């Protein structure tokens, strides 16, 4: 059997959008074939099954979000200004009310992570890598004396991640800039104390 040729990143991003819109359980193979443009046999050949496609989509999501995060912090601007821009970007994603702007990691964790150890571990590794990225930014801010030297970067990164999860969740019920932006601003200002 020959392998089907396709743009893997494009297929994974299309699958990612399908999973974000309908959730894992409600996304059928028909939805995935329509979204990706692949025949069911090609999906099974390349990814084994729907779970394999979700795992690959989570990997692509991590790669895309990591590149976006690194690009935002690649400039030589003040790391706190970049972190503020990052939080503001999350607010804009929440305000879009676009299901494809949600976090695939948290959506998959809440839907299937507790029932599937492979997916749980993959999401855990991805979230830990995200936390480490935030810790690096905070350590940079400490070295530039932008935040107190005694700031525990690990705890502060965990606090920020908790706040971002909350902001995204709250954004589903209150997609209002007058509500979400002050919350993001308060989250950011917690760094400065």
From TrEMBL:
Residues 28-47 bind DNA. InterPro entries: DNA-bd_HTH_TetR-type_CS (IPR023772), Homeodomain-like_sf (IPR009057), HTH_TetR (IPR001647), Tet_transcr_reg_TetR-rel_C_sf (IPR036271), TetR_C (IPR011075). Keywords: DNA-binding, Transcription, Transcription regulation. Gene3D superfamilies: Homeodomain-like (1.10.10.60), Tetracycline Repressor, domain 2 (1.10.357.10). Signal peptide: none annotated. The keyword Transcription applies. Residues 5-65 form the HTH tetR-type domain. This is TetR/AcrR family transcriptional regulator. The lineage of its organism: Bacteria, Pseudomonadati, Pseudomonadota, Gammaproteobacteria, Alteromonadales.
């Amino acid at each position: 059997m020959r392998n089907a040729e396709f743009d893997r990143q494009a297929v994974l991003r299309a699958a990612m959008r399908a999973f974000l819109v309908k959730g894992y359980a409600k996304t059928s193979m028909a939805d995935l074939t329509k979204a990706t443009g692949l025949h069911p046999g090609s999906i099974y050949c390349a990814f084994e099954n729907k779970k394999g496609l979700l795992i690959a989509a989570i990997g692509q999501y991590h790669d895309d979000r990591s590149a976006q995060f690194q690009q935002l912090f690649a400039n030589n601007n003040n790391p706190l200004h970049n972190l503020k821009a990052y939080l503001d970007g999350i607010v804009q994603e929440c305000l879009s009310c676009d299901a494809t702007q949600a976090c695939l990691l948290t959506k998959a964790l809440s839907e299937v992570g507790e029932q599937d150890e492979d997916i749980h571990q993959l999401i855990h590794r991805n979230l830990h890598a995200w936390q480490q990225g935030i810790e690096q930014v905070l350590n940079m801010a400490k070295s530039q004396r932008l935040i107190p030297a005694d700031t525990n970067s690990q705890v502060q990164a965990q606090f920020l991640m908790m706040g971002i999860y909350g902001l995204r969740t709250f954004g589903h019920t209150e997609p209002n800039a007058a509500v979400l932006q002050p919350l993001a601003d308060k989250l950011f200002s917690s760094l400065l104390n």
